[in-house]
Amino acid sequence: MERADDAQAVLERVRLVVGSVPVSQRQFADRIGMHPTALSKALNGSRRFADHELAAVARVGKVSLRYLRTGRGRPPVAAGDPAGPDTRRRANAVDAEVRKAQILEATARLIARRGFHRVRVADIARACGTSTGTVHYHFPTKGDALRAALRHYADRLHERLEAEFRETDSPTERLRRLIEVQLIIGEEDRDEWSVWVQSWNEAIIDPALRDSQREIYARWRQTVLGLVQACRDEGMAEDADAEALTSRFTGLTDGLAIQVLAGNGEMSVTRMRELLLDAFEPHITLR
């Protein structure tokens, strides 16, 4: 069996393949079934390509999976003159998307860890090695930066949920996995929740932030509601109000997470898990 090259070499070949296809990076992401943000992160090296994603890159880029993994085989062929303006434009578009992803990643992390009002544009520029003008180009106002950070972590949450849900068709098992994803276990979980809570705080004061916050929260709530309804389809919670169960669970999740995030000694991650597992009782049993 041939040994795959190291991750960096594989990543360089993936970048070459993406640049060889005469479409935008967003269109390429659509063709391989990835979210554009996830593709940008993967091309930036901050996220690894899953096996099925590499296979999709190979298919769309018309190269073999063997080539991507080992470098052996026919390399990608760019449409037109390799040195022509179309190829350069495609390469520049990839670079621009990667740069945007870097700025977004730095912005979201700084807001999560320092606080929305303590982060300056100069801090973001310094964190990702660019100019303040470039940061302003992507995020003209601080409100734009907060909205982008919130969407960044919301996309990350749903990517994780989708990965978990692919492994099971059981609605109760999916609810259990959804609870695990909501727990504040690692630094990235803390970052995600920090931005969520800060977005709520700012939306109380600034009405301009409410629409995006409401839209993103509605997406999360609909995920929970869909699972509750799936449980009803299997004969559980038939006499219960699915909307009320969903509101009870989401409200409890938010409140418990804030307690954990704020370091309330009476609320641990273990306790949060136990309370959330009981949230749907007596209608849906998750234990």
TrEMBL record:
Residues 24-68 form the HTH cro/C1-type domain. Residues 120-139 bind DNA. Residues 97-157 form the HTH tetR-type domain. Keywords: DNA-binding, Repressor, Transcription, Transcription regulation. Gene3D superfamilies: lambda repressor-like DNA-binding domains, Tetracycline Repressor, domain 2. PROSITE patterns: HTH_CROC1, HTH_TETR_2. PANTHER family: HTH-TYPE TRANSCRIPTIONAL REGULATOR BETI, HTH-TYPE TRANSCRIPTIONAL REGULATOR RUTR. This is TetR family transcriptional regulator C-terminal domain-containing protein. It comes from Streptomyces viridiviolaceus.
